[in-house]
Structures are given as structure tokens and as C-alpha cells.
Amino acid sequence: MIEFWLLASVMLLIALGIVLLPVLRVRKSQAEEDRTALNVASYQEHLAELDAQLKAGSLTQEQYQASATEASRELLNETQAVKKSATPLGIGLPLVLALLVPILALGFYYKWGAQKAVALTLEFKELNDDQTQSMEQRIDRLERLVDVQPYLLEAWYSLGRLYLQKGELAKAANAFQYVLDNLEERPVDVLVEWAQAEYFANGKQWTAKLQQAADDVFKQAPDDASMLGLIGIAAYEVGDFQTAIDAWTAVIKGLPANSNGVEDIAMGIERAKQALAANPIIAEAKVGTVLPKLPAKSPGSNLASELAIQVSVDLAPEIRTQVEATDTVFIFARAQTGPPMPLAAKRVAVADLPAKVSLTVSDAMMANMTIAQFPDLELQARISRSGIATEGQWQSLAKAAKNDSKEQFTLLIDQPMQ
Fold first, then answer.
1. Cα distance between residue 382 and residue 5, in whole Å
2. What residues contact 259, with CB distance under 8 A and at least 6 apart?
3. How far, in Å, CA of 248 to CA of 292, rounded?
4. Peptide bond into 354 cis (omega under 30)
5. Which residue among 121, 332, 403, 404 is the one 20 to 30 A from 12 at the CA level?
6. Could you check whether 204-297 and 303-416 share the same CATH topology?
7. What is the Cα–Cα distance from 292 to 308, expressed in whole angstroms?
8. Can you spell out the DSSP letters for 205-254?
9. 3-state secondary structure of 333
10. Checking DSSP bridges between strand 344-349 and strand 328-335, what pairing results, if any?
11. Where are the domains of the chain?
């Protein structure tokens, strides 16, 4: 805040200068007027002396006339450059107004100024790279930030993720909902995280609003593992074991073979199969409830199987101590010449590395922007502690690839991000 107050002080001094400059000019004009009056008085005294000398006979009429003319010329020269200025306000009132400028400015600022926003902005600028902050400290700062700057959707999204990690599901759902309500588009990541928070905060009740969110996600990313996993959980809870099996099977197909979560999902599939054998008929849904549904697959659609870029990702040994097992790894492909946004992306955790993934048309972030539309691609991997791809700390070098290549590309994460 020191820089802010220094700048504010300079601006106040400039304002005082603008107010006081005319006053100083008036004072200068007044001094010139006083000097002119003194010159006139002196001229009159000189004429009186000349009159006395003329009467006494000390001066002839010609000498008297010449001296009087010379005195008049000198008075004219003295007053010729003086510009008389009227000062109806005097000096006192402008000086009082000038002193009121900083007082009124401070009063208005404390009443209507954005001092909290300025303080928080500076605070976040200083602490943005501080990885020693506790979760409670980060939540507290974000809560204060969105309180004074509610239009910062990225702050709301980060706050929602922290609420989710802390287990405050209702607050997380509200934060993600706020982001969705203020965006024209419905991003996959926000939809998925809102759905997860909303489902568990609502007592594991699947609703029409949740199903709409799932449909929106599947339109953009038909194989999104997080939403498929949530559909599987919701289906299992209501006794739709076949939907749970289908959803979790699709999740396994999209995960690396050595992923930590594969065994747990496989166990869930096995339990669902056993439950399905014992209860082959789906339990009827209660009135007012909604059954979770998977997206319908288009017959004959084989783009995903035709285009599949195989990528192997690993972490350089020298940075393993600088990352955490829970940090997110984004693996993505984008056009070498074209839109900067990824055309296909997947994410795993640092704990899953080394990992092998396939980037396909179904991994597109937008249905109308896929790797099928751009033959020349660029592959890259990135680590982000916050879980936001644009806020990464480490990344690999980018590698060129054709969208129909059968080669397996290796990406080594060893470069710090600027």
C-alpha cells in the first residue's frame, strides 16, 4: 500500500497546486497594484513641489512645463506593464478551499473508494507464489477478494476447488454455480466439478439439472472420465447396475493402464456385476427423482478409433522433489497453425507418472474443434498445482505430430514455465 499512498500524495499535491496557483497570481497582481498606487502618490508630491517652486520664482514657466511632462512620462512607463485584476473572492476563501481538497478527497475515498480491492490486489500480488499458505489462509483471502470484486470468475472457480478439497460441498457447488451463471459458455471442467459438489451436497440425489449438466459435458467431451465416474456412482446408488458398469468401463478405457485408480474402478465394476446378477431388474425410481443416463452413441461413428495419438509422459528426476503427487498433469494437442486452445486434452496426477494416454477426437474440448480438422499438431504436457492448465509450473518441450500418426510420442516434463 506504500506505493499507492505515495502516488495519491503526489496527485493531491498537483491538485493543491492547481487551486493555489491562481491565488498566488492574484497576490502578485495585488502587489503590482500597490506599487502603482505608490508611484501615483509620488508623482503628485513631485507636482506639488514644482508648483511651489514656480510660485516662488525658482522655476520659469517653460522649466515647470518640461519637469511636469518628464514626471508624467516616468509615471506612464512605470504603470504601462501593470494589469489590474479584480479579486472579488479575496485570498482567504481560496486558501481555505485549497486546504479542504485533501481532506475531502480522503473522506470521499474512505466512503466510496476501492481501498479494500486495492489492498487485496496488492496482497495477492505478493503472495501469489507463496506455496506455504494453508488451505484456510487461501480460502480466507479468496473470500475477501470475491467479496469486493465479485466479477473475478477465476477467483470464484479457485475458491470452489478449495471448498471441494475441504469437503464444504454446498459452498463449492454455489461457487461453481456462480461461475456458470456468469459465463456465456459452459466449460467442461466447471460443469463436472459443479455436478460432483451438487450431487454429494444434495444427499446423492440425481436431478434433472444434474442430468442436463452431464448432457452438456458429453456433447463437448463424450469420454470425460470424471463425469462418467459420477454417472456410475449415481446409477449404482439407485440400483441401475448396468449403467454403472457401462460408465465405469468407459472410464477404464480412457485411463492409463498403470493408473492408481484403475484397480478401484475395476473392483467397483465387479461389485456392480454381482449386484446385477442378484437384482437384474432396475428398481423403480421414486416419484420426482431422475435416473442418470449415459450419452447415446452415434451408430457408425469411428472417428475416435481412426485418429488416436499415442503419448507417453514422464517427469524429469531433478524436479520430482519440487512437485506433489496430487498435482495435475495436463497432456494436450493443439494446432501448429490455428487456434491456440487445445484440440484434445487429458489429465492425470503426478502420482500416475510415467503414463501412456491416447489423444482422440472424443477428447476435444469443443465438439467443432478436434484433431481431425488439423493435420499438423503440437503435443505438450504441463503440471499445475492449482488444477488450472493456464497456471502451470512445469512443462515439457512441444513436439510436432501428424494427426494420423501411429508413432508413440514421448514427452519429458523438465522445463519451468515463465
1. 40
2. 348, 352, 355
3. 13
4. yes
5. 121
6. no
7. 29
8. ---HHHHHHHHHHHHH-TT-HHHHHHHHHHHHHTT-HHHHHHHHHHHHHH
9. strand
10. antiparallel
11. 2-112, 204-297, 303-416
In Å, what is the CA distance from 250 to each residue of 227, 322, 368? 11, 33, 22
Q: Residue type at 287? A: V
- One-letter amino acid of 318: E
Bridge partners of 383, per DSSP, are 329, 394
DSSP 390: G
Residue in 220, 171, 239 with CA at minimum distance from that of residue 200: 171
Gap between the Cα atoms of 152 and 183, Å rounded:
11
* 314 class by beta-carbon count within 10 Å (0-12 exposed, 13-18 middle, 19+ buried): middle
Residue 305 makes CB contacts below 8 A (sequence gap 6+) with: 360
Q: Is 204-297 in CATH node 1.25.40.10?
A: yes
Q: What is the pLDDT of residue 367?
A: 57
Cross-strand bridge partners of residue 379: 333, 399
Count CB-CB contacts under 10 A for residue 154: 12
Please provide the size of the chain in residues: 418
Contact 131, 385 (CB under 8 A): yes
* Strands 394-396 and 376-384, sheet pairing: antiparallel
**How much is the pLDDT for 85?**
45
Place of cell 508623482: 43
Q: What is the pLDDT of residue 350?
A: 92
pTM (2 decimals)?
0.48
Place of cell 503628485: 44
Strand partners, 312: 356, 410
Cα separation, 137 vs 150, whole angstroms: 19
Q: Which mean pLDDT values do the consecutive 10-residue runs of the chain (418 residues) have?
A: 63 68 55 60 71 76 75 66 47 63 66 58 55 79 83 88 92 94 89 95 92 92 90 91 88 75 86 79 54 66 63 93 92 86 89 90 72 89 88 93 91 91
**Please, what is the end-to-end C-alpha distance for the chain in angstroms?**
26
Q: Where are the alpha helices (DSSP H) in 57-91?
A: 61-79
Q: Which amino acid is at 86?
A: A
Q: For residue 323, give the nearest of 395, 390, 260, 378 by alpha carbon.
A: 395
SS3 369: strand
Q: Which three cell numbers stand for residue 373?
A: 480438422
pLDDT of amino acid 114: 54
Classified as helix, coil or strand, 409 is strand
The span from the CA of 282 to the CA of 190, in Å, is: 31
CATH (residue range 303-416): 2.60.40.2990
